[in-house]
């Protein structure tokens, strides 16, 4: 009936039927619990059921029987349910399943490890080769650098050897002193704007070397 | 002027506990009180008042009172005293007159203890048996019955006895 009412309302809405015919809601016609008693039933006293002693005893027996039987059936079903979770065979089966699963997991792990080991060996070999090449290149570079350094040192030594021919030693110190005494050079002079050199506030004609110096000074000025 | 009762009827008739206790000397300690609703039992059921306490400090209920009693229920003397507080407002109590007290004690002494032997197990219900047979499970053909073992339950189960599943397997075994 309720379903029918719903349908009616739905079709009423769809077909713009504002007043469905013969609609009688069933569910929501009852008085809610929180409303007071209907005025027409205000002073009504409900008649108490009269149950005879025999019938009462019979009902008591029936209910007792029913309750006790149901209790034992429930207990039995609970026991069966419990054994289906915690029985010895069930536990053994669960343990076997777990063992198989564990074995499978181990196998997968081993396979994976082997795969990874193969890949790692390849990678390590490549890396080792690259490292070897790098070290070789570095060795060559170092050797070349060393050679260059040696050459540079050789050059310095050669130059120094050439220079050492003009060194003043114990043997030729007297000659050097004599030479120095023979060619005294006086650098204590002044220069004017024209480039003339003055010794002791006097203009003096210089030697050829001095003339060259003068020319240089003039160029500078 | 006769009293005309209107409205719903009640199973209770008698006085509240305080109506009885409040009118007695020494608050009725030592007196016997019974409940009218216990008349349904053949065995004697009554209380012997041990102590009375007011309830004004607890709640404002004029009809209630706290009474500690020795309880005798269906011919069985309780070992521990019982407190009557929550049901003390019920107009169900009746004072046993002093000249009848000995009669009640004699009834208690002459009362034979209740006995009830019930079968220990029943056969399997038919549908349950069918389901178990369908599933090829091993099952015992009987279900053990669980008997209530409360303070007032006297039923004893006879383990050797097996009865068929049915609505009235307790009927013939009742002896009380």
TrEMBL record, chain A:
Q: Tell me which domain of life the UniProt entry assigns to the organism this sequence originates from.
A: Eukaryota
Ordered alphabetically, the record's keywords are: Coiled coil, Mitochondrion, Ribonucleoprotein, Ribosomal protein, Transit peptide
What's the main place this protein lives?
Answer: mitochondrion
Where does the protein end up? Mitochondrion
- Coiled-coil segments: 109-163
Gene Ontology CC annotations of this record: mitochondrial small ribosomal subunit
Please state which protein family the record places this protein in. Belongs to the mitochondrion-specific ribosomal protein mS26 family.
Q: What is this protein called?
A: Small ribosomal subunit protein mS26
Taxonomic path: Eukaryota, Metazoa, Ecdysozoa, Arthropoda, Hexapoda
UniProtKB/TrEMBL annotation, chain B:
The superkingdom listed in its UniProt entry is Eukaryota
Q: May I have one GO cellular component term?
A: ribosome
GO MF annotations for this entry? structural constituent of ribosome
Name one matching Pfam family: MRP-S34
Keywords for this protein: Ribonucleoprotein, Ribosomal protein
What name does UniProt use for this protein?
Mitochondrial 28S ribosomal protein S34
Organism encoding this protein? Cinara cedri
């Amino acid at each position: 009936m309720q379903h029918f009412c719903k349908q009616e309302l739905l079709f009423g809405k769809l077909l713009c039927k504002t007043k469905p015919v013969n609609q009688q809601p069933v569910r929501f016609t009852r008085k809610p619990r929180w409303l007071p008693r209907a005025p027409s039933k205000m002073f009504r006293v409900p008649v108490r059921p009269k149950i005879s002693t025999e019938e009462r005893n019979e009902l008591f027996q029936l209910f007792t029987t029913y309750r006790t039987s149901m209790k034992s059936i429930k207990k039995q079903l609970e026991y069966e349910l419990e054994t289906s979770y915690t029985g010895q065979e069930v536990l053994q089966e669960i343990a076997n399943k777990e063992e198989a699963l564990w074995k499978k997991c181990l196998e997968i792990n081993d396979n994976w490890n082997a795969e990874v080991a193969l890949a790692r060996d390849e990678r390590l070999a490549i890396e080792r080769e690259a490292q070897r090449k790098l070290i070789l290149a570095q060795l060559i570079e170092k050797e070349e650098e060393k050679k260059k350094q040696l050459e540079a040192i050789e050059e310095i030594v050669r130059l120094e050897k050439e220079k050492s021919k003009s060194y003043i030693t114990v043997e030729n110190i007297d000659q050097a002193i004599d030479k120095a005494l023979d060619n005294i050079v006086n650098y204590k002079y002044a220069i004017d704007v024209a480039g003339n050199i003055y010794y002791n506030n006097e203009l003096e004609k210089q030697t050829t070397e001095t003339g060259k110096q003068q020319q240089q000074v003039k160029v500078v000025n | 002027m006769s009293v005309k009762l209107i409205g719903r009827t009640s199973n209770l008739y008698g006085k509240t506990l305080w109506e009885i206790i409040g009118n007695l000397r020494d608050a009725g300690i030592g007196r016997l009180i019974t409940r009218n609703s216990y008349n349904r039992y053949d065995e004697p059921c009554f209380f012997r008042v041990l102590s009375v306490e007011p309830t004004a400090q607890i709640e404002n209920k004029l009809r209630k009172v706290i009474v500690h009693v020795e309880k005798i229920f269906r011919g069985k003397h309780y070992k521990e005293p019982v407190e009557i507080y929550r049901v003390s407002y019920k107009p169900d109590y009746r004072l046993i007159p002093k000249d009848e007290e000995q009669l009640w004690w004699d009834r208690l002494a002459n009362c034979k203890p209740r006995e009830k032997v019930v079968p220990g197990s029943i056969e399997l219900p038919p549908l349950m048996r069918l389901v178990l047979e369908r599933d090829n499970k091993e099952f015992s053909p009987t279900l053990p019955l669980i008997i209530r073992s409360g303070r007032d339950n006297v039923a004893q189960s006879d383990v050797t006895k097996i009865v068929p599943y049915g609505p009235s397997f307790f009927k013939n075994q009742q002896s009380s």
